[in-house]
Amino acid sequence: MRILVVYPYIPYPPDRGTYQRTYHLLRALARDHEVDLLALSEGGERLEQQPVFAEFCRRVEFVPFQHPKWPRLFPDRLLNPLPTTVVHWQLPQVAEAIRKFAAGQTYQLVHVCDIVMAQYFFAQLADRPLAIDRSRVDWQFQLAQREAMSKGMRQALLDWENLAKLERFERRIAKRVAVEVVCGPDDETFIRERISREVAVEVVTNGVDLDYFRPEAAKDRRGLEPTVLFCGAMDYTPNVDALRWFFTEMHAALRKRVPNCQVLIVGKAPVPEVQAYGALPGVTVTGGVPDVRPYYRRAWLQIVPLRIGGGTRLKIPESMAMGTPVVSTTIGAQGLGLRHGDDLLLGDTPEAFVEQTARGLTDTALRGHLEEEGRKTVHARLAWPMLGKQLSDYYAKRFGQD
Predict the structure, then answer these.
(1) Among 70, 133, 135, 141, which is least packed by CB within 10 angstroms?
(2) Could you report the per-residue pLDDT of 385-396, keeping only the tens digit for each?
(3) What residues does 177 pair with on adjacent strands?
(4) Domains assigned to the chain
(5) 128 and 107 in contact (C-beta within 8 Å)?
(6) How far is CA 34 from CA 63, 138, 234, 264, 396, in A?
């Protein structure tokens, strides 16, 4: 098959969860099919990475761009039928770049990441099947975000306005696309119940690069004191909310149960709120690091107290592959099909989360069991090559006869 892939960013190096997913799935598609890649580069970042993709893609083009300013509330935002989060990605130069890149080419499928890129294909290549790989279902994510976070009246009204428009846009997209590729069964359920019963949905869970994330890749030993890790982009709203919940309602209780417990917060671009946690006893905020693997090895557990679901959950399979057991909320581990007490520990209230974390820190045998079973699970079904092969085979079967 010949596939046109359009990404809203250049996913290399794969230093964010969505970048890991899109990069590894792209490599898998290119192993079995002829792939042309057009990717956007905000502010000209990562343009030097073109040779990385030229090794496995037939054609590669990067398009520098700048987002427009967020629209004024009136008349620009309120009178526009599109959600402002979609308008923010509506760029005439991108539409023109796609037109030129696709000119004279015959594609059997167009594969894009997220609905912000799908909007370009209502008019262009409208006769070609369109597949969306969704790092998250936008309407689902924004609903969860609104429910989890308290806001002032003005922001609440703006959220409602954007959600109403996003609901209509999601349904419009569902009528255009041939398949929506999602990260987990929870995303599929939301699409079926709230967006469309007719659109095809293929679940391709998130995975891990087992060649990179392996215990032997980091020489660091476990910390001398009980240590928990939270790893992820520290400017990402669900991660900020998770840490807020942990430090507001759980940290003090955990320190009472395990007085010498240390907390490592590792990830790029920590917002001021996250930076402030570094002033608490036993808490270290590293910011971005060149290699997260030593931190996985130092930690006794990774904690994932997420309250906002949907989309990528890369930190869990990474941690399991490195042999670091995980304590998560059910929302944090959605879609991965993991077993409480074997692959990881689950707790959905502050009390339950503290209890499971304390268990993991104080029970050496339990940690050993979780480490062994977690590594077995990621090797059996969460490696990127097998997940990418699943998507590649699905596309070949659905669209390869054109």
Answers:
(1) 70
(2) 999 999 999 999
(3) none
(4) 2-207+384-399 (3.40.50.2000), 215-381 (3.40.50.2000)
(5) yes
(6) 21, 29, 36, 43, 12
